[in-house]
Amino acid sequence: MSLERDGVLSDEELAGLPGMPSKERLNRGPVAVIECAQEIPCNPCEDACPNGAIQVGEPITNLPRLIEDRCTGCGLCVPACPGLAIFVVDMSYSEDEAALQIPYEFLPMPRKGEMVEGLDREGKVVCSALVVRALNSKRFDHTAVITIVVPKDQAMKVRGIRATARSPL
Amino acid sequence: MRRTELAIVGAGPAGLSAAVEAASAGVHVTLIDENRKPGGQLFKQIHKFFGSKEHYAGVRGFEIGMRLLEEVERLGVDVMLDSVVWGIFKEHTLGIIHDRRNILLRADKILLATGATENALAFPGWTLPGVMGAGAVQTMMNIHRVLPGRRAIMIGSGNVGLIVSYQLLQAGAQVIAVVEAAPRIGGYGVHASKLRRYGVPILTSTTIKEAGGKEEVERAVLVKLDGNWQQIPGTEEEHEVDLICLAVGLSPLAELAWMAGCRFEYIPELGGHVPIHNSNMETTVPGIYVAGDIAGVEEASTAMEEGKLAGIAIAESLGYLRSDEARDRKGEVLKRLSELRSGPFGRMRRRAKERLQRRYGVE
Q1: Residue A115 domain-assigned?
Q2: pTM
Q3: Per CB distance under 8 Å, which residues of A are interface residues toward B?
Q4: A169 in a domain, yes or no?
Q5: How far is CA B16 from CA A53, B61, B306, in A?
Q6: Is B154 exposed, middle or buried (0-12, 13-18, 19+ CB in 10 A)?
């Protein structure tokens, strides 16, 4: 499994990324997880962060580096990434659940309170998830940010969601 | 005969950007496009662009197009739409068909910003309806809001193939697979990951063997390739599909440059035969400039910067910009261009461009 061959980041590739928070930081509460692994000229994430927690610098092809102590997990970087490669993980959500912010550009838009399927990086259904927030403000320019709650052991696996058949209101 | 100071052929990202730069310096610009609307491919691009703020990063392509159009309108650029430039003659004269009439337009300078044309791929069944280029798929979906198929296979995993596959998903189609002959995915990993997350397989070292169907595409047969790009017998897999989308590269659309007598160089990394040009984007025929994909296939963001470069250089040569002003402005554009051509994806294009420019002035 590799990004270049399969389009899926391997665990080794993920572990080496400068945008990955440490395990300790993950356990402390919401934090950005930046799954950007190729040196492409791009830096909107750096501009999006109000706390200077994401550094690209020069050259613009640097991989974004997360300064984890400055990150508040606000999630403003999530819709700003043109590659939809940033997520926010909150391991402190509850005893056995984590909250996860995911960028989402499909219709129908999931609604708060809805159950959806949690998909891993290969599109496999790994759990069901509860939507606790669905933000689609004008500033996000049609990249909605959906917050879901998943079992803790799935928080670093789930990266997509699929709406299940919606019952008519 | 009509006269203008600068005639720009093609109102895509390069042509529009050049028009803005030149017109804001005071040049009288005539912008000509064969389509009914300006914008080139920009209005089909519904994804957010990469780059930095200065490159409109994070803005969706069609919105960049709208901003450029507003600028062009504000500056009073003469825009001729539905107008086909069919020939280029002595003394910078263009033959244009507009409203079924032939018009001759003589310009002090000409910028060719005609873009690129999609490459085709021939295989048994490729003429069946339902086999189409990624550009046509984008036009149908994103301009006319017509879904070109419900079950699609994408041939080619460059950024175009990956982005259009994602747009097919957004439009409600199923993408059975993205197929790539090379052993590696061609485009950005982030685009590939977006597809994989939603269950689209990307099959490397694989190609299409044939398409079948009575009146239109009903199935596609895929086959694995070995290390020498040869089909491996027995690895065929048949898929039921109604759309086979080709995204197998682009070539510079350069007929007018050939006709004008520009010298060319064959540069595979830039899509094939490319008019040799200098850092002002001027070709080997004085007064004729190129920008965007005709000058080497890259991206919309590089096309816009090249257009600006040509616009500034032309304004300077017509006496609308002092050489020190022009130098400063060109310097800023060149800096942004070198940013866009950095990193493992851009480096190859930067070297190819440098090779091309070294040919300038060499007989």
Answers
A1: yes
A2: 0.96
A3: 3-9, 35-44, 47, 59-61, 80, 82-85, 105-107, 119-124, 141-143, 159-160, 162
A4: no
A5: 37, 13, 11
A6: buried
Per residue in B281-316, pLDDT (tens digit) is 999 999 999 999 999 999 999 999 999 999 999 999
Helix (H, G, I), strand (E, B) or coil at B272: strand
Rounded to the nearest integer, the mean pLDDT of chain B is 96
- B184–A contact, CB cutoff 8 A: yes
What single-letter amino acid sits at A98?
A
Report the residue of chain B nearest A161, measured CA to CA. Answer: B198
Residue B193, pLDDT score: 98
CA angle B81, B83, B85 (to 5 degrees): 135
**Type of residue at B234:** G
> Does some domain include residue A111?
yes
Size of interface A-B (CB pairs under 8 A): 126
CA–CA separation, A145 and A87 (whole Å):
9
pLDDT > 50? residue A169: no
**Chain B residues touching A42 at Cβ < 8 A:** 50-52, 57
- Taking phi first (over 0 means left), then psi (-120 to 50 degrees means alpha), and beta for anything else, what does residue A20 get? beta
Whether B265 and B350 have beta carbons less than 8 Å apart is answered as: no
Residue B188, token pair as written in the block: 């950005």
Structural domain harbouring A23: 2-163
Nearest to A42 among B51, B59, B169 (CB): B51
Mean pLDDT to the nearest integer, B210-234: 98
Q: Which two tokens stand for residue B129?
A: 């309806």
- Count structural domains, chain A: 1
A168 in a domain, yes or no? no
Whether residue B87 contacts residue B261, with contact meaning beta carbons closer than 8 Å, is answered with no
Which candidate, A19, A49, A3, A56, places its Cα nearest to that of B343?
A: A56
Residue of chain B minimizing CA distance to A9: B193
